[in-house]
Amino acid sequence: MKRAVNLGLILLFVALNIFFWGCGQPTDQGQINLTQQEKVLAPIYTAPEGEAIPGKYIVVLKDNVLPKGDFKSVAQAVAKVAGEIAKTYSLHLEHVYGFALKGFSAEIPQDKILALRSDPRIAYIEEDAKVYAFAQTLPWGIDRIDADISSTKAGDGTGSVTGVRVYIIDTGIQLNHPDLNVVGGVDFTGKGTADDGNGHGTHVAGIVGARDNGDYVVGVAPGVELFAVKVLGDDGSGSFSNVIAGVDFVTQQKLNNPSLPMVANMSLGARTGSKYNSLDNAVVNSINAGVVYAIAAGNDGADAKNYSPAHVKEAITVGAYDENNTFAYFSNWGSLLDLNAPGVRILSTYIGSSTATLSGTSMAAPHVAGTAALYLSRNPSATPQQVRDRLVADGKAWVKVNKPKTTNLSVYAGNY
């Protein structure tokens, strides 16, 4: 007997509730103990009081200290330079980023910050910050975007999407869920397994690609390969440095397998308007490496231009609407939204080999990730820009929007 968990309308957006501010161009405001002399040093970006993880920082290296060459030699050089810096300043490295970003995260005593900022190899430093998670039937969202009339005809009990892999950067996935084709997982939270103890990542994964097998629910791209990238803990909390490590891992996977089409879903982001340079740069570099990113716009009912990573222009940023095609009151809006997708009362897979009904732009983004996977299964050589342009061109103008400069386009999967 499969049990269903109805969690109702939760403004889910596993929203890395990152209350970051002052993370744009370096100014006196938002920097640590800045003197006139120090303004020539590498900038340091800070978190608001109470949100920083004490003593933890992300350090980004300058490009000119690394060799020009293939990605593996560059990554090796990053590891070498990071190790040298750690040895010089007696630091304990947590993550080394060699693919989407060039740098590392570490615990750094306050009395060593100034020395690091004067190191000519360092481009900038950012305080690490806390992140938090909020909170077979044919789901209405799958029907609304016509995934049920796509090439795989989601919901007819047969067929699956092959030749594409979707990375779920989230709380993990229930690795043995019978309705999900999970092909692997990696953990950046220290738990040692990518298995989901929260539920959010499993729900997102089901929207993308729950199997079309007559049980539970069905996803937009039924049976597509799913890979769990666990960056948030089972309590729904984590750090920016973990998320960047996840993006870096996905980028490495693409560089190692350039012929395999890849999509990444990020149903996370800042709950209050904030931008985070390291994460944004990592996502942009990952897209440039060939990974398509679908990113939730956020659940604050605010302009998405002020939110990381939702404001990354190269990504596909997704707002939410309900069963009546009305733009969700909680969804972030604005000119940076590329598409909208169903995001209210969405039924999908959940931990405990069950299903659950959740709401949020967290649920909207995977409808787009699944649609991108459908398109790539038929157009495997398409670039992220080409995928984004095609999905926008094929979008349907049926969303009733009352926000300024916000698209009324819904993602549409029926053509693929």
Automatic annotation (TrEMBL):
Domain Inhibitor I9: 56-132
Residues at the active site: D170 (charge relay system), H200 (charge relay system), S362 (charge relay system)
GO cellular-component term (any): extracellular space
Keywords from the UniProt entry: Hydrolase, Protease, Serine protease
Short name of one Pfam family: Inhibitor_I9
Highest taxon of the lineage: Bacteria
Matching InterPro entries: PCSK9_ProteinaseK-like, Peptidase_S8/S53_dom, Peptidase_S8/S53_dom_sf, Peptidase_S8_Asp-AS, Peptidase_S8_His-AS, Peptidase_S8_Ser-AS, Peptidase_S8_subtilisin-like, Peptidase_S8_subtilisin-rel
Keyword rRNA processing among UniProt keywords: no
Peptidase S8/S53 domain segment(s): 163-392
Gene Ontology molecular function: serine-type endopeptidase activity
Signal peptide positions (record): none
Biological processes per GO annotation: proteolysis
SUPFAM superfamilies named in the record: Protease propeptides/inhibitors, Subtilisin-like
CDD domains per UniProt: Peptidases_S8_PCSK9_ProteinaseK_like (cd04077)
Family that this chain belongs to: Belongs to the peptidase S8 family.
This protein's name: Peptidase inhibitor I9
Species this protein is from: Candidatus Thermokryptus mobilis
